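2 proteins. here.
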Amino acid sequence: MRRYALAAAMSVAALSAQAQQFTTGAEIQPIIEMTTANWVAVREWEGQDLLYFTHLEAWRCGMDQVRYFVNTGKPRAREMEPCYIDTNAPNAIKMPDGHVPYDIHPLGLIETVTVEVTLDNGVVLSETFERNAILMP
């Protein structure tokens, strides 16, 4: 019985180590594609629209670039936190040097947001969101 418990514990540890990586476009692409609805969110806060990128920040390892367009305007590059590849949690969100997971816009400005995610393998994923679909309560 002890041998089975040890084998099970080793299997769980191996799976946990694998699950903590997700640092390439090939590894994150299925997750990003399945969670499109979570890419961005809008929050009205203290007279401003905050456009959150928290979900994409959490999967940023494996991304080359994130760009977004507000109301079909000019493309903006979203500066992402670095990938901490030499650590046991490369996707950790540490918010260094005042980095925050959102961009600030005038209250009510955001009607639509189009997001383009370019993975490190050259794949470009894109989605457009209506304000009401991503507005946080």
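next one coming up
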Amino acid sequence: MNQELQENYDLGNKLFEKGKYSEAAPLLESFVKLFPHYADVHNKLGIIASFKGDLKKASEYFEKAIEINPKYTEASLNLAVTYNDLGEFRKAREVFAMAAQIAHPEANAVDPFIAGKLANEHFKVGNIYLEFDMNDEAIEEYRKALKLHSGLADVNTKLGIALRNKGLVEEAIVHFVNAKTINPNYGVAWVQLGLCYYMQGLIGLAFEEWEKALEYNPSLKEAETYLKLVKKEDK
């Protein structure tokens, strides 16, 4: 994939996320003509077609997305809704039943798409609690989010902050390290881990974390500020 196509793909997705469907559609359509095996693009084009009232076209896009990825729960649910709107109730029930079976192969399994949505809601509530210094409540929400979806660097980082606020620095460090492992480019985790080390008197380790944070994200002002302060103290 050349750079221009990659840029069109990225721009099309950004426009879609902003709800600018008319602008996103031609970019995504041109992309999928060249790369027809991107299930997420077919799903997005299906949503756009549905929004425009072209339910037949929407169903075709959703069908293609599921053909590419039979476990694409979101596309399956979108197709079931579209079939229902088209009056094809038997098809709607069949697709919905298959989606449920794929999403819940085990009795207590949670569909990854739903788990991600729920985790995000717990994360939002946790952030509100953290804002008002209600750390116990924030920790509870962040733990719920990670139970649903453990691979979230931002949730691990916020949980680490709440734990550190309560003086649980060693446990906080574990979550900051987890965040770094999940996403090494997430500079905030490096900054917060540096603060933990600094609080424990490990100045050298703190310095290393903040330098690494700037290496990954040169615009991270917090890391730059902490480095300057530590250098002044050394003088």
